[in-house]
Amino acid sequence: METHEINGFRGRLITADHADYDTARALWNGAVDRRPRLIARCGGTADVVAAVRFALDHGLEIAVRGGGHNVAGTAVCDDGLVIDLSAMRAVQVDPAGRTALVQGGALWGNVDETQAHALATTGGIVGHTGVAGLTLGGGIGFLMRKHGLAVDNLLAAEVVTPEGSILRASADEHPDLFWALRGGGGNFGVVTTFAFALHPLGPTVMAGPVFWAADDTTDVLGFYRDFAAAAPDELGTVVRLGTIPPLPVIPEELHWRPAIAVACCYAGTVEDGERAVRALRRFGTPLVDLLAPTPYAAFQGGLDDTVPHGWHYYWKATDLTSLSDEAIGVIADHAYRAASPRSYAAMFHMGGAVARVPHDATAYAGRDVAHNIVIDGVWLPDESDEHAAAETAWARRFLQALQPHSAGSVYVNFLDSDDDTGRVREAYGDHIYRRLAEVKAKYDPDNAFHHNKNIRPG
Predict the structure, then answer these.
(1) Which of helix, strand or coil describes residue 62?
(2) Distance (Å, rounded) from C-alpha 331 to C-alpha 279?
(3) CB 445: neighbour CB atoms within 10 A?
(4) Can you say whether the dihedral through the CA atoms of 137, 143, 145, 146 is positive or negative?
C-alpha cells in the first residue's frame, strides 16, 4: 500500500512487509504481541484526519498510539490501522503566559523541556511515559498534591473526531467533550495537541528516595501513614516495595536487595523541602538516603532504566480507603513474595489539590482516595511461561488480599488487559460513567474508538 492511497496523508505508512514493521508495532510492554494491517505514522493533525477517515471508510479497527506505554497494549490492534503519533512530539512553551502546547505523541521527558524556563506541570513518574495516555486517564505524579492532576492543568485539547472533524475542546468550546477528556481516556477521538498550564518549579528541587530493609516495612509504613497525612501539599511521595534497582547511584552491595523506598519531590524551595523531609530521613536506619537537591528533570527520568521497553509487565491495582494497620500488614506480607526481583508494588499518596477539585468537575473519579496502589509483575522476554504465570499469580493474590481494604475504585490507567475489562465502570462509579456514556454517544455513537478502556455509547 503506497502513501498516495490514503488521500491527503503525508506521513509514513508501514505494512507487514516493511523492514521497520516489528519495531513500529512493538510497545513498552513486551508481553503485548499484536500485528496491525497498517501503521500510519502521522506528521501532523491533517495526517490524523486522513488516517481516521481511511480506517472508517475501509472498515478497519482503529488503535491510537501516543507513547505506547499503556500496560494493556491498547495502542496496537490486530489486523487494523494504528494511528501512530510518535513522530508528533513538539513542545512549545510560552514562558510569559506559563503555558505549553504539547503534541499528542510527546513523552513526559519531552515536556520536561519546560525546565529551561523553571516551569513544570504535573506529569508521570517515568520519562518515557506518553503524555496523551497518562493525561486522558487523569494524570497522577509527584506534583499533583500542589498543582493538581494533569487533567486539572489541561486548558484545551485539539481533537480529531470519528467523522474526521477537528474540534477544540475547552471550558468554553465543547465543554462536555472537555469534561470527558479529563479522565475518560481515549474514547472520544484522537487528541493531537494538549494545552497545559505551567507552574514555577526548580530547576533544582529537593527530591529522591530513601530505602529501608524489607524487614522494616511494617514500621516504615506505620510511620509513613502519619508522615504523609501531615505533609504539606508541596510534598509528593511514592512508596515502592520490591528490590533495590541496580542504579549507578546506589552502592553495588545493595543491588537487588529487598527493600521499601519512599521517594519524595518537594514542589517548593530546597530549604523548605529539606525541613519537610527531615523526619522521614531520620526514621529508623535507612540502607541508603538519596534525598538531595536535584535537577527536577533528572529526578523525573531517574526511574526510566528500571522499567525499560521490551520487558514483560502485568499490573493489578486498587484504591485504598486508608493505610490501616491491617492494610499495612497485607502489604508487608505480600510485597516481597514475587518470584522475579524486577517485580514491585508502588503506592501513591493522593489528597492535597487533587481532593479539593469538586468530584464531578472532571471525569477523573478518585478525588477522595487517600492512596492508590499498583502491583507490577515483571519478567524478561526470554523467561519461560512459568515465570509469567508466577508473576501474574503473585499480582492477583496480592490484589485479592487487599480487597477488604479497597475503596471499591481503581485508577483507569492502572487497569491491565482482558481480565480488567469489567473494571472500567469501577474506575468511574455509576454517575460519572453514565455521563461519559452520554458524551460518547454524542461524539462517537458507533464506538469507532473502542480499542481502549472502553466506555460504550449511552
Answers:
(1) strand
(2) 23
(3) 11
(4) negative
Task: Give the largest Cα separation in the chain, rounded.
Answer: 66
**pLDDT band, residue 4 (cuts 50/70/90):** very low
Q: pTM here?
A: 0.96
Please report the domains of the chain, with CATH numbers, ordered by start residue.
Answer: 10-84 (3.30.43.10), 91-200 (3.30.465.10), 204-418 (3.40.462.20)
List Cβ neighbours of 165 (8 Å cut-off, separation of 6 or more). none
Relative orientation angle of helices 325-334 and 217-229, to the nearest 10 degrees: 130
CB 333 within 8 A of CB 218: no
Q: Which has the closest alpha carbon to 67: 121, 120, 133, 4?
A: 133
Grid cell locating 397: 493474590
Of 147, 141, 146, 246, residue with least CA distance to 196: 147
pLDDT > 70 fraction of the chain, expressed in percent and rounded: 99
Q: Any long-range contacts for 249-257 (C-beta under 8 Å, 24+ apart)?
A: 249/290, 250/288, 250/290, 251/288, 254/211, 254/287, 254/288, 256/341, 257/213, 257/214, 257/287
Of 93, 423, 123, 148, nearest to 299 by C-alpha is: 123
